[in-house]
User: Which sequence fits this backbone?
């Protein structure tokens, strides 16, 4: 019986190590067919990725109970503000929470980004995500180009330069 807590702590440490070691944007090499969804926002309006064709899109999966997610929210807001005049959008996809709880949280923190609801977690799982936050950076054609697990400094010079490179890519490239 005494080994159970030690095993549990070891599993938690391994999980935190995985997130801590994977906070860098990594090129995405998995199957590109996962870049679809049709999700409602807090007002009930449906959003699909096709609606954002021609823009670089950052899809951020998050939850209000997730400390790293909450830490990342101001950074996402700054990134969107810094690139407000560019063809760029941040979509904050809440995972597994009910609409009213998300609405209260968003209102409390003045979260102005588009918030979409994945209450069933189906989209989160179909994109191969298992850790919150997990984010995907898509090019103008809607292809996933980068992925990061855990919170990251989205408004760092390196990341902004990468996003600007995607913004400036020719539509017919690749």
Assistant:
């Amino acid at each position: 019986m005494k080994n159970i807590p030690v095993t549990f702590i070891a599993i938690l440490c391994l999980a935190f190590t995985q997130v801590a070691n994977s906070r860098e944007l990594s090129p995405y090499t998995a199957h590109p067919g996962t870049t679809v969804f049709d999700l409602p926002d807090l007002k009930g309006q449906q959003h699909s990725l096709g609606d954002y064709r021609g823009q670089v899109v950052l899809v951020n999966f998050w939850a209000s109970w997730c400390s790293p997610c909450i830490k990342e929210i101001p950074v996402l807001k700054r990134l969107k503000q810094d690139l407000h005049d560019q063809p760029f959008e941040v979509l904050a996809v809440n995972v597994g929470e009910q609409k009213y709880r998300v609405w209260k949280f968003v209102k409390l923190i003045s979260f102005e980004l588009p918030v979409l609801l994945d209450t069933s977690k189906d989209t989160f799982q179909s994109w191969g995500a298992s850790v919150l936050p997990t984010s995907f950076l898509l090019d103008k054609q809607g292809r996933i180009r980068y992925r990061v697990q855990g919170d990251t400094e989205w408004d760092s010079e390196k990341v902004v330069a990468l996003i600007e490179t995607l913004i400036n890519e020719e539509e017919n490239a690749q």
